[in-house]
Amino acid sequence: MRILSCISYDGSKYYGFQKLNKQKTIQGELEKTLTKINKTEVKVTGAGRTDRGAHALNQIVHFDLNIDIDEEGLKLAMNSSLSDYIYVNYCVIVDDEFHARFNAINKTYEYVINLGEYDPLINDYVLNYNKKLNIKAMKKAIKYYIGIKSYKAFVTGAKDNCNSSITSTKIKRKKDILVIRFTGKTFYNHMVRNMVGALLLVGQEKIKPEELNEMLIKEKNIYNYSTVPPVGLYLIDINY
Question: For position 160, what pLDDT does the model report?
């Protein structure tokens, strides 16, 4: 039977989602636990790969089991075996044709920035930027990301097709914490981290909001933004 499982994890304790030969990863830990429960090898497919250091509140995976176990029993069995830094939110039996990646309608990511005093206790979970930003300009600039277009200027590595659809964006501030949110169909390698990096240039008043749009149109990082660290990145939700 095929299972959809929703998981959350602290990415600071792992070398990313994708399985690696020697380092601990989310996919690797899930497969090790499920193989133990299933008594035969289990392969896990994720809706997307998060970078080393990035976190998830609702990552979706699917896998196949050949044992008789109910959804709640599976959740309990997985959580009793997994480390304290990975948690199974729920498990659901789905159709054998379900695919965690290909059936996804959209994904929501958030990037969290601390504008206040440096805080060592949250350094693995937010970008300790610790300076002021022109948030009004950033809110104007972020709207340029919305639409169906090429995001080549904000994708790391060579890729023929960088087209996608971003349906909504939002910037909100609560005291010294700034949260930047993106919802869209497909997010390519480092895309969210690069888009945030460009927004920081706007917030620093090094470029104008319109110049961020210029990078979208010209499909090139012409203003030399930097990729922000993965620590502030969270996979918030996936819709099907």
Answer: 85
Q: Which residue has the tokens 């998981």?
A: 7
CA distance linking residue 208 with residue 129, whole number of Å: 20
Q: Quickly list DSSP for 145-209.
A: G-EEEE-GGG--S--S--EEEEEEEEEEEETTEEEEEEEES---TTHHHHHHHHHHHHHTTSS-H
Residue range 23-49, pLDDT digits in tens: 999 999 999 999 999 999 999 999 999
* Cα angle: 123, vertex 127, 130; to 5 degrees: 95
Q: Catalytic site residue 119?
A: no
Distance CA(105)–CA(101), nearest Å, equals 9
Residue carrying the six token digits 């920081």: 200
Buried b (16+ CB within 10 A) or exposed e, 54-84: bbbbbbbbbbebeeebeeeebbebbbeebee
Q: What is the crossing angle of helices 209-218 and 135-142, to 10°?
A: 30
Q: Which of 51, 68, 84, 95 is catalytic?
A: 51
DSSP letters for 24-48: --HHHHHHHHHHHHHSS----EES-
Q: All domains of the chain, ordered by start, with CATH?
A: 2-94 (3.30.70.580), 107-239 (3.30.70.660)
